[in-house]
Amino acid sequence: MTRVLGRAGLLLGLPVVLLVTWWFASAGSKSFYQPPLETIVKVFPDTWTGARFKSDVFPSLIRLFIGYGLAVALGIALGVLIGANRRLRALVEPLLEFLRAIPPPVLVPILILIAGIGNPTKVLVIVIGGIWPVLLNTVEGVRGVDEVLADTCRSYRIGGWLRLRTFILRAASPQIVVGARQALSISIIMMVIGELLGATNGLGYTVVEFQRGFQIPEMWSGVFVLGLLGVLLSLAFTLVERRVLSWYHGARAAERSGH
Amino acid sequence: MLEINALRKVYGGHGRQVEALGDITLTVEDGQFVCVVGPSGCGKTTLLRCLGGLLAPTSGEVKVAGQTVTGPPDGLAIVFQEYGRSLFPWLRVAENIELPLKSKGVGRAERRKLVSESLSAVGLGDAGKAYPWQLSGGMQQRVAIARAIAFQPKVMLMDEPFAAVDAQTRADLEDLVRTVWQRFGMTMLFVTHDIDEAVYLGERVVMLSSSPTHVLESLDIDLSAERDQLKTRSEARFVELRSHVYARIQEAKGAAAR
Amino acid sequence: MTTSPNTLRRAGDNPALLGLAGILAFGALLEVLPRVGVLPSEYFPPTSKIIAALIDEFGRGDFWQAVVGTVSTWLIGLAIAVLAGIVLGILIGSVPVLRLATASTIEFLRPIPSVALLPLAVVLFSAPIRSILLLVVYASFWQVLIQVLHGVTDVDPVARETAASYRLNRWRQARYLVWPTTLPYAMTGIRLAASVALVLTITGELLIGGTKGIGEQIAVAQSSIAVPSMYALIVVSGLIGLVANLATRRAERMVLAWHPSVRRELPL
């Protein structure tokens, strides 16, 4: 019992200490740019619930989910195509190597120039950022499928959609998940950048508006919202990953224990 | 059931050519249990992959039930040596057995029946819900055999299936394969490097030479149909047959070394 | 008769030739499509125009200043992140109590998107370079830290017991046991950090401005709607990224030449 408590104390101790320290250290702060934590917490509910949730948070989230979903779907589809075809892989590999080396944010200005600042652009911005890790990891995953399993599929004449669904995608899934996780954090970043560079609503836009309007506690609260979003989505991802890859972690554990 | 005519396989690439199979001609009757034995590296696996339609021969042909093999043929199942890698780790045992049946278009009720029958045939009646990696090596190979049984093949190919399990498990699995063969009556081609195993299991033992591989001799095993690990292996006839096969394989190795 | 399909097949089997063909085909496609009017040429200048703009950039002094600026910001940020990541990673990783106490905090801070800190960085620091460095270091530090933490905990228990039975002292254990195990992980972390750091450097230049850098040059080209130069600068940012990737991979191979295993990225 005391050990469980001790563990919980260790896990929660540092965050609590940090927050309490911040709270009291900033309590009497007269600095314009570093308001007391108390003030930030106070403005938080008024700033982010109600109208602004509907006008800014919600559109951002929708764009994020669509963009991320498209990035993952396209990345997997293209990755399977390229990974399963040796010639095609040799043909596009150096090109992909170059394209993925381009920092995705530099493409945002040109996209805005071409397609304006509407919702399609903002979704596209997320897709061009998020697609690379998924694509490249899927290629690696598909390329690395086990030969004996591939032979098993062939000899039992498991082909087409069944083969893709029960063999290729599942065998590549540990790699695909690695890519999808990287893509998630990149997607959030791209969402914010898209909104910083050209938008009339959204989370990133609002936070920068606060900064430009010198509404500093509101700006801090916006940074909190973005941070919270990142943390919550990463948590959700971990839950999904545990489900999708439970077989993988089980098999790895069995392997390590020398089965 | 199985006809192999002047089969030859040459691996090419980067200017170097390796002749894995020299000239193999062999016929296996319907329902016969044939063991193929040869020194290590003699192209046994190549032969089996050609039979299974996983590898195109350089020349010659393979026929299964009168049909020339161009790809994996109908009614043929392979049990691979690497049991840990031939079962899908993300599928439960029952789903592993069910998958080939799904692609064959077998109905759901029939699939259920075949899965439970084949699992009990290999003595794993209650393991259907486990994942393969939760089982021991021997049990995993039993699952692979159950999957082959459920597929209801006319021909079953086994590629050194017991090379990676311990001796006790191996004896159990050998008896299991005999029982399965007697019960389901499929044509069985069993590739091994273990001479004892070949003589113990087969009705006929085909000896291969070192590469370029050809058939050294085809020997009928005139032991009784009921085999027993202790009794059969201590019979004088068993020892005699075993010594004969051993001598021929040694001869082949010697010829290759020279 | 027989030679031509043979040579064709040989060309088709040569990955380097195929790769070159892929790049050339891509360039040719982007040359032809705007010219025949499939893509609007004011937004998609043909490849030849982009190359011309690129050559034009090469002749300008402020372009090279921008390249130097970007690369130096990137290297400074990366160096800080790597140093902090390795030192803290080894410290936290080798003290179980510290590891337990910091786990939740790390799990919470790591997924915070670095650009979320951008408005903060802008109001907290008056010098743009410091704002950019904050973003760069924040984003790349976690990559190194997480990998090093995994590395330190991956020390073979048998090797640890062997070391203990030979009574190696703490320093020796760190030197001969912990460090060699951690190094491959640290190199993976550095490789990942390097590309993240470059992305954030150029992003910071693009969004904050005020420093000489490729990102700022792109912002300038955008405001004057110099489309070919925008593309040329994007190509340059890609080339810098490519060189960075190749360099870190090479460094990884050199440092780990002695190491028996080539490590894969961990599914974290």
Task: Give a structural overview.
The complex is a heterotrimer of chains A (259), B (258) and C (268). Chain A has 259 residues and is an all-alpha fold. Chain A has a single domain, classed as MetI-like (MetI-like fold). Chain A contains eleven helices and no strands. The model of chain A has no long low-confidence stretch (mean pLDDT 89). In chain B, helix 3 (93-104) crosses helix 4 (108-121), helix 4 crosses helix 5 (137-150) and helix 7 crosses helix 9 (236-257). Chain B has a ten-stranded mixed beta sheet, with helices on both faces. Chain B has helices spanning 44-51, 83-86, 93-104, 108-121, 137-150, 167-184, 195-201, 229-234, 236-257; strands spanning 2-11, 18-28, 33-37, 59-64, 67-68, 76-79, 155-159, 187-192, 204-208, 213-220. Chain B is of the alpha/beta class. In chain B, a hairpin with a 2-residue loop joins strand 4 (59-64) and strand 5 (67-68). Chain B is built from nine helices and ten strands. Chain C is globular and about 75 Å long. Chain C starts with a helix and ends in a 13-residue tail after the last helix. In chain C, 38% of the residues are buried. The chains are: A mainly alpha (259), B alpha/beta (258), C mainly alpha (268). At the A-C interface, helix 1, helix 4, helix 5, helix 8 and helix 9 of A face helix 2, helix 5, helix 6, helix 9 and helix 10 of C. Chain A: Its main location: membrane. Chain A: InterPro entries: MetI-like, MetI-like_sf.
- Rg over alpha carbons of chain C: 24 Å
Number of domains of chain A: 1
CATH secondary-structure class of chain C:
Mainly Alpha
CATH homology group of chain C:
MetI-like
CATH topology of chain A: MetI-like fold
**What is the residue-averaged pLDDT of chain A?**
89
Number of strands of chain A: 0
Structural class of chain C: mainly alpha
What is the CATH architecture descriptor of chain C? Answer: Orthogonal Bundle
Q: Could you give a short account of the major beta sheet of chain A?
A: none
Major β-sheet annotation of chain C: none
Strand and helix order of chain C: HHHHHHHHHHH
Average pLDDT taken over every residue of chain C: 85
Helical residue percent band of chain C: over 70%
